[in-house]
Give the backbone structure.
Amino acid sequence: MYRAWAPSKTFLLGEYNVLTGGSAIIINTEPYFELHTTNQLPTGWQAPLHPQSQTYQFIHRYPDMLATYRMSFIDPHQAKGGFGRSSAEFLMAYAFRQFACNQNTWSIEDALRSYRACTKTCNTYQPSGADLIAQYHGQVTIISTSGHQALAWPFAEQSKLCLLRTHYKEPTHQHLTELHSIPKTALQPIVARGISALQHHDLKQLIQAVNDYQHILTTLQLTHQATLELIHALRQQTDSWAIKGCGALGADVLLIILDHATWPTLQTFAKQHRLEIVATEQNIGYGWQQTKETI
């Protein structure tokens, strides 16, 4: 049996900015998406796929693969949305195709070219592929015009990082069709400050960058009203240092940086508001992996 894993991803900074070719910082965490592939019947992809998704387009280019292998995709989030399911599907489907064809020297640039070739949308903004890059590299991935870099989270002793699932969902593909203008000049400088802060281990500067980014998203009306209400409540009740909505319209996930001493207060807040703690800095993990067993 062939098995592959890809981490869950969350934008620390840079959603929307990457759609115009800008930079981003993406955090990769547990739990992992998985792909299990065998020769057992029934063959084909054993999970729902949207016909316009990149994974659907990709696997249907290879009817031999669909006819030969049973490909079971496991979503640890149980279809609740967010965390990069669609890009994880594509990354592992692409990796399996290369493995099955004994082409194991592929790069993330190869996968990106295929991903873009399989993008069948007519939106103003096309998917950037940033999710794919991050899930390939893992850890805290910096994506910029000068390249990609995976770093360890340097602030574990100084702060607590938390990802909260809101149980709201804004479909990304639908949201992209409604976007008309993204002011890169407002977003890119903030992401650049965040990258510098991460590289120089400057927690104060990073906190400022996260808060500034959320402020800009709010000003541009790129944050869901329910998320804005949760952010306001968190600021009032938990003394969190930085709070930002993540995903389309910031609806799926809340990213929070806070003092270790405030952690019990945040846990209580999450329970009271029925928010799910999905990951902390302790769950930041590796990038895509596979087990190379004989098929």
User: Anything to note?
Assistant: The longest helix spans residues 203-219. Residues 102 and 226 are 48 Å apart (CA to CA). The mean pLDDT is 91.
